[in-house]
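Discrete fold record:
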Amino acid sequence: MTSPRALCLAAQARFEAAGIADGDRDAQLLMRHALSQLEGHPVPRHQLTDLLNAPAPTGLEALFAPMVDARAARQPVSQIIGRRAFWTHEFEVTPDTLDPRPDTEALVEAALKHPFRRVLDLGTGTGAILISLLAERPGATGLGTDLSEAALAVARRNAAAIGVEAQFLLSDWLAEVQGRFDLIVSNPPYIALAEMAGLSPEVREWEPRMALTDEGDGLAAYRAIVSAAPRHLEPGGWLMVEIGPTQAADVMALMRDAGLENVGITPDLDGRDRVISAQFPA
């Protein structure tokens, strides 16, 4: 019987042949997931080395093989194992949702610097931004909107699993939204159509296209959000959006033209422009 370590090494070689960087890491993540499924509970990371050198449990190779096939086809590891860590929780992810990324944690961090009682998350996807904010602010309420019913179903499951009360609504940005909010946040599709071909296969071929691009210049979502947000912000409330690293000037101009104040930029951990914030006049 092939050992877990041999299975991992074979998977790593296959990943590297497919052009996947960090094939060793991905092979071990998938092996840990397979072993966890067979054990019936999560295998701690520190136990993996011992388990790789132990005899293979019955059924391991049959369970591991389709995971390797999927990754070699460039499906993201998070979709294969069905979860992704973000902020302080793990979130269910599927091919119907954008994979939560560390860059987006800059948006959560920026939002938590301001008081809010009611928050709106536009294009919520997995619900990662909204749920992370509400988990940090007991007593706050929140609404997440999305144009995908499948994504909203994932967000509802994530909220229930993490123990956060939130509402979710099918809406084209703010079209179906009622009322006002202290905070509006969004990580909208900001990749220009001309940039799509340059994305990795993991993103371009496996993540929902409408969560990536507006099929135009990458600014259509910001135009829609910024034009409608002032009607749904409380006086003194904040609008905060994630951007691509070259879009700061354009998005800031949209916010100023809409009458918003205190427009500013928050960088991500790599120092790139990542979040644009603006305040509705009090």
Summary: The chain has eleven helices and nine strands.
